[in-house]
Amino acid sequence: MHDFAFDIAHMLAGALVLVSLMMLYQDRLYALINVLAIHALVLALSVAWQAWVHDAPHLYITAAIALGFKAIAVPMALRRMVFRLGIHREIERVVGTGLTMLAAIALVALSLEVMLPVTAGVDPVSREDIALALSVVLIGLLMMVTRQNAVSQVAGFMSLENGIVLAATGAQGMPLVVEISVAFSVLIAFIVIGIFLFRIRERFDTVDVEALDQFRGERG
Amino acid sequence: MTGFDPLAAVLVVPLASAALLVALPGYVLPSRLNVLASLASLLCALSLFWHRPPSGNYLMVDDLNVVFIVLNTFVGFTTAAFSASYIGHELESGRLPIGFLRFYHAMYQVMMFGMNLALVANNIGLMWVAVELSTLTTVVMVGIYRTPAAIEAAWKYFILGSVGIALALFGTILVYLAAKPVLGEGAGSMVWTVLITQAAGFDPALLNVAFVFLLLGYGTKVGLAPLHAWLPDAHAEGPTPISAVLSGLLLNVALYALLRFKMLLAANPDALAPGPLMISLGLLSLIFAALMLYRRYDIKRLFAYSSIEHMGIIVFAFGMAGPLGNFAGLLQMTMHSLTKSAIFFTVGHITQAKGTQTMADMGGLTETHPMLGWMLVAGVAAIAGLPPFGVFMSEFLLISSTFSRQPVLAVAVVLGLLIAFGALLVRLTPVIFGAPRGREARVHASTLPIFAHLALVLLGGIFLPPALVAWFQHVAILLG
Asked: Which residues of chain B neighbour A137 with C-beta distances below 8 Å?
């Protein structure tokens, strides 16, 4: 039974890496947002599985946040934003898909190479989770570096953050996991609001002072 | 034992006043309340010297963080005083609408809360959350003018800061994993006071990897060289009180987090020595920032690079470690906070008087605004490390102690300091002594905070109170 639990955990963590890789070659924003939602969904499943296997009910909260906030609410908000800003038809040039994928594979190899030897003393589930989580983090960073568009950067950051939540839940019994995932969600909410403001600047540039004034009125 | 708990008060006062300030409209009353609340926090912090509560699972006070808390609340208080007059002027000139003030003052206190919490947190997870909170609040403050440049700076700070913070969290998780076999699961294995006593038994390889992540993560927030890109923009585009707080306090808070983990590594005999990593990053920041100083045209950006330079020196000093290196690091950190915030106070009033931040458009300050001009002279002399100011003391101490151990490194530090000194001289001489240029508007400058800071820095250079020296020596030994 324990082996089965381990296999499922391993599979879900591996799936997260796979979805991270899928994200890298999406060149349409809508498609990217869809993959991001899948990413969060896989994370939610993985966290829920950990909660069930280790009988840690508080992790269900983290899983629920991943599902409700990151797999449903944020992608919806991003999609609306992309539509309203009129960038939904834009095709983002992904710099050298082949090269990026190769780099990503190298990063996965690197993180396994770094993490597996040093975590020899840790129990196998955490060990695999941490190694795979690091590759998700590194691929997220790669995504943020190779993309120009603010929405794609946020997607990269969110996948990075999913990797960290995977690591935190994989490290069994870590205190404050729920608090930390709430803190992270606040961060993401801020980012999403921020990108809205940022895009507004790009679109209206210097002319539309009124648009900014309206914002000022709202925030007062 | 009375019911008064200064440790809790350091946190409750800013939080309660933030809640109050959100509700208060207008300008005069909230800005005074802001000053009062900051003063109250300072008094609570000072009382920690006499009345120290025992450390719990979440909060603690020890000899190291008392120094940071007192410095933090002191600069927080003087900055609030400066901010009152600065914001008054911004209101008159219409750069900041009055509706924003409520938000500004409340955020200021939330920011102080976040930084104080990071300093007193005994749990490495809680410390991380607090650093994140202080990052978020400063991001909002940097973008408060809503000009395109300000929003861009805030965005850049946000993205880089978030990545840094995410890496720091990964490092924190690895520390927990390293501690788990020794301390078992659950809350105890993230409590710092427990971790430090048991650190010798942790898995050294895991600790090493964790420290690399923590150094990169919190190092981003310290503004170390390859990761500093957010810092100049955030300093230049936000309101000047926030620049002062960023340079004087927030960088210190991140540095404090780094020091805590450094102590953890030092307590484990098999883990890698954190010194060489910190020395190389520190030296790189110093030399890089010193060279970058030459090509600055914006006065706030200039001093932002100077902050990178000084954080480089401080990280270098803590990397050298040993009683003398740590002592120099602590002194340099204290003096830098005081001096740099004094400079930002002065620069804030100067840019208000001249109506610009571009150095080419301002000149002859000692003629047009003698008071501000000479204060800037004093501040720049202090930050450049000229005697008789305190920065000279700490840099002298650092260089002489480094010279006896690693002469080559000492030469590199001296070189960096000289390059930076030259840059400050080249860039600021026309601004201070040149022919008068730019507007000559009067400003109602609040000179008291500037005087207080510069006087303390001067005092630090001439006569360090023996009690303070003994305290710093004790902390330096604690730091290993």
From this structure: 166-167, 170
Q: Is the peptide bond before B388 cis (omega within 30 degrees of 0)?
A: yes
Q: How far apart are CA A91 and CA A142, in angstroms?
A: 19
Q: Closest-CA residue in chain B for A177?
A: B125
Cα angle, residue B342 at apex, residues B336 and B345 outer, rounded to 5°: 140
Q: Does the pLDDT value for residue A120 go beyond 90?
A: no
ipTM of the complex: 0.86
A176–chain B Cβ distance below 8 A for any pair: yes
CA-based radius of gyration for chain B: 21
Residue B311 CA to residue B313 CA, distance in Å, equals 5
B111 and B15 in contact (C-beta within 8 Å)? no
Provide Rg for chain A, Cα atoms: 19
Token output for B338: 């005081």
- pTM for the model stands at 0.90
- CA distances (Å), A164 to each of A50, A70, A130, A160, in order? 15, 14, 9, 7
Report pLDDT for A217. Answer: 39
What is the phi-psi region of residue A173: left when phi exceeds 0, alpha when psi lies from -120 to 50, beta otherwise? left
Residues of A in contact with B99 (CB under 8 A): 216-217, 219-220
- CA distance, residue B101 to nearest chain A CA (Å): 8
Q: How does residue A218 score in pLDDT terms, banded at 50, 70 and 90?
A: very low
Give the tens place of pLDDT for each residue, B210-249: 999 999 999 999 999 888 889 999 999 889 999 999 998 9
Any idea what DSSP says for residue A68?
A: I
Cα–Cα distance between B425 and A137 in angstroms, integer? 44
Q: For the purposes of burial, counting CB atoms within 10 Å of the CB of B67, is it exposed (0-12), middle (13-18) or buried (19 or more)?
A: buried
Across the interface, do B166 and A164 touch by the CB < 8 Å criterion? yes
What would the two tokens of residue B138 be?
């400063």
Which residue from B146, B155, B166 is facing A160, i.e. has the nearest CB?
A: B166
Q: pLDDT > 70: what percent of chain B? A: 99
Q: Which residues of chain B have pLDDT under 70?
A: 1-3
Closest by CA to B316, choosing from B329, B334, B330, B305, is B329
* Structure tokens belonging to residue B10: 């350091």
Whether A13 shows a pLDDT value over 90: the answer reads yes
Distance (Å, whole) CA B247 – CA B234: 10
> From the CB of residue B194, how many other CB atoms can be counted at a distance below 10 Å?
19
Domain ranges of chain A: 2-219
- Give the integer Cα–Cα distance in Å for B22 and B104: 9
Please answer yes or no on whether B123 and A176 come within 8 Å at the CB atom: yes
Q: What token pair was written down for B433?
A: 């002594």
Q: How many CA atoms lie within 13 A of B305 on its CB side?
A: 24
Phi, psi (degrees; rounded to nearest 5) at B229: -50, -30
Torsion, Cα of B321, B325, B328, B331 (10° steps): 20
Does the distance separating the beta carbons of B132 and A187 come in below 8 Å? Answer: yes
Q: Would you tell me how many other CB atoms lie within 10 Å of the CB of residue B229?
A: 15
Decide if B178 contacts B203 (C-beta within 8 A): yes
